[in-house]
Amino acid sequence: MSLTKKILIALVLGVIVGIGLTFVPENIFSNMDTYVLNPVGKIFINLIMMVVVPIVFVSITLGTAGLGEPAKLGKIGIQTISFFLVTTALAICIGLGLAYLIKPGAEGVFDVSSADFEAKEAPPVVETIINIIPNNPVSSMASGEMLQIIAFAIFIGLALAFLGEKTKGIYRLFEQANELLMFLVNLIMKAAPYGAFALIASAIGGAGLDAIGSMGAYMGVVILGLAVHGLIVYSSAIRFLGKGNPLKFFKGFFPAMSVAFSTSSSNAALPVSMKAAQENLGVSKGISSFVQPLGATINMDGTAIMQAVATVFIAQVYAISLGFSDIIMVILTATLASIGTAGVPGVGLIMLHHTI
After folding, report:
1. Which residues of 73-97 are buried (b: 16+ CB within 10 A; e: fewer)?
2. Which residue windows are transmembrane per the record (predicted)?
3. Cα separation of 62 and 289, whole Å?
């Protein structure tokens, strides 16, 4: 059985078991979650996150060095970032449109009287741009600052491209490091079905039927937005820009999609997505190594849809009317706020707080 089928079966079983756990006594679920589900899920996430920073640094360096000419790198970089910003803006528009059409918060199904959440303020866009250049690359790697890691890796890659034969040994070392990391990813992915099952079952079992029911309309709009964005925006891009078959793409990319869905983390899905792109879809290592780590950092369309729906949802719950200028500001702010935001679970709350 292929890994894709195993992960799909694990996700379905995780949903079923998670719903079943909502009917068991709290102490039984707590023990199962504490000693079984939560450890398995966290170990899987930690295994993936363990290789994320090395993969980003090594792959971006190799990708930049492989592209060679600065002009070629600049052209691909501009096209890539432009595509990312456009798809993020479209994702926000889809989320806003569906939220206004379906009105998930208009019926007052969600009780906000006891809501209490305090999020950190997201940094200004100008500050994010300034902080792209790290003053201590080693510290940036230790703290997982992806934009800074990418910037440093690009500089190293450019230096390797310019120096050529003088640094052939170092370039070969990076190639060997990449092979080593890909081997580890293949090894880690053998645990993917178990990790996906544990994460989904724990999340659903911990939320409970009441919470799932009260947030059903909101969740439904977000999931619908994800489906529309994937089936229309991404499928159109694959067909007309990539000249490819969308069905073949989604089939080959499903392992990465399932990891992203179960972990809610673009960083956690990065090693799997690079493996799927290179091995299942035939994307060149140079392009994949440069584009995908960049996308995991600045192209979080799922989060963009979530915060667009959440913005309208909250406005409807509190009976606040958003004008045209407010909608435009939400689109611009959310698009720019996505640049440099960490690709980890829960970061959407910080982005949403900044957008509102």
Report:
1. beebbeebbeebbebbbbbbbbbbe
2. 7-24, 44-68, 80-102, 146-163, 183-205, 217-241, 304-321, 327-352
3. 7
Burial of 42 (0-12, 13-18, 19+ CB in 10 A): middle
Length of the chain: 356
Give the residue with greater pLDDT, 339 vs 170. Answer: 170
The residues near 294 (Cβ < 8 Å, ≥ 6 apart) are: 60, 80, 81, 84, 150
Domains, the chain, with CATH or none: 3-355 (1.10.3860.10)
Residue 296 and residue 343: Cα distance in Å, rounded? 6
Distance between CA 41 and CA 311 in Å, rounded?
A: 30
326 pLDDT band (50/70/90 cuts)? confident
Spell out a b/e string for 297-335, using b for 16 or more CB atoms within 10 Å of the CB, else e. bbbbbbbbbbbbbbbbbbbbbeeeeeeeeebeebbebbb
For 166, other C-beta atoms within 10 Å of its C-beta total: 11
Residue 282 has pLDDT above 80, yes or no: yes
- Residue with the two structure tokens 């195993």: 6
Block residue for tokens 């303020």: 121
Handedness of CA 134, 259, 189, 345 (dihedral sign): positive
Kindly report the pTM of this predicted structure: 0.67
Helices (H) and strands (E) in the chain, counts: 17, 0
What is the distance between the alpha carbons of residues 108 and 87, in angstroms, rounded to a whole number?
31
CA of 187: how far to CAs of 167, 181, 191, 218, 275, in Å? Answer: 31, 10, 8, 37, 12
Question: What CA–CA distance (Å, rounded) separates 171 from 238?
Answer: 32
Model pLDDT, residue 345: 43
